[in-house]
Amino acid sequence: MATIVFDLDGTLIDSAPDIHAASNAVLAEAGFDPLTFDEVRSFVGKGVPHLVGCLLEARGQPREGELFDRLYADFTARYHTAVTLTQPYLGVMDALEMLRTRGHVLGVCTNKPVAPARAVLDHLGMSDYFGAVLGGDSLPVRKPDPEPLLATFAALGGGQPVFVGDSEVDAQTAEAARIPFALYTGGYRKTPVTEMHHDALFDDFDALPELVEWLAWL
Ligand SMILES: O=C(O)COP(=O)(O)O
Ligand SMILES: [Mg+2]
């Protein structure tokens, strides 16, 4: 049996459409033009402060200050209900079901704040699979600091660990935490996989249950 911790955005769920819509709503509210889907998706993975900083920078504004505070508050207020355009990736629900049936313990470690993370998991009927959910605001540090990932495994009671994520941040986190890492290649990564740390790669969640069996014993 393994203890498997998943990243959320770009790994279990394709949430970029909601994050794009919320970002453009926040920009519009502040009088700025919208950004493209690809632009906003490239900002996802390092938490909300980073995202909001990128939105401002893309519109020629400083990343910090009064405007940042306003957009950050507006984005945060909208984030809890930004769930309607989000879907689990193909095969995710079946993979979670199979992993649970096989007795593996499952958790989530995301840089999304924990309240919207829980909201979208509830909305998609996924919450029951996870014994622990840590967000970008659960601890004073977020990924790629290894602490949130290690704390998620600790909350799940230990066991043979595997981390599943999609991004450069996840790869760095796994490396820093010395946890076996499966890289999902269908998410929001910007770097070629050959240049990223990973112990295994997959592009189809049907492959994950088998992958986990051997990764857990690395
Ligand atoms: O909120 C983000 O920036 C991304 O969150 P993730 O860690 O689930 O990819
Ligand atoms: Mg991610």
Automatic annotation (TrEMBL):
Q: Which UniProt keywords apply?
A: Carbohydrate metabolism, Hydrolase, Magnesium, Metal-binding
This protein's GO cellular component annotations are: cytosol
Which cofactors does this gene product need? Mg(2+)
Active site per UniProt: D7 (nucleophile)
What is the enzyme's class at the highest EC level? hydrolase
GO terms (molecular function) for this protein are:
metal ion binding; phosphoglycolate phosphatase activity
Entry superkingdom: Bacteria
Q: Which GO terms are recorded in the biological process aspect for this UniProt protein? A: carbohydrate metabolic process; DNA repair; glycolate biosynthetic process
Database matches in Pfam families: Hydrolase
Q: What is its EC number?
A: 3.1.3.18
Q: Which CDD domains does this one have?
A: HAD_PGPase
Reaction(s) catalysed by this chain, per the record, are: 2-phosphoglycolate + H2O = glycolate + phosphate
Residues annotated as binding Mg(2+): D7, D9, D166
Recorded metabolic or biological pathway in which this protein acts: Organic acid metabolism; glycolate biosynthesis; glycolate from 2-phosphoglycolate: step 1/1
Q: Which InterPro entries match?
A: HAD-like_hydrolase_sf (IPR050155), HAD-like_sf (IPR036412), HAD-SF_hydro_IA (IPR006439), HAD_sf (IPR023214), PGP-like_dom2 (IPR023198), PGPase_prok (IPR037512)
Give a short account of what the protein does.
Specifically catalyzes the dephosphorylation of 2-phosphoglycolate. Is involved in the dissimilation of the intracellular 2-phosphoglycolate formed during the DNA repair of 3'-phosphoglycolate ends, a major class of DNA lesions induced by oxidative stress.
Q: Which NCBIfam families match?
A: HAD-SF-IA-v1, PGP_bact
Q: Which PANTHER family match?
A: PHOSPHOGLYCOLATE PHOSPHATASE (PTHR43434:SF1)
- Family listed: Belongs to the HAD-like hydrolase superfamily. CbbY/CbbZ/Gph/YieH family.
Q: What is this protein called?
A: Phosphoglycolate phosphatase
Organism in which the protein naturally occurs: Phaeovulum vinaykumarii
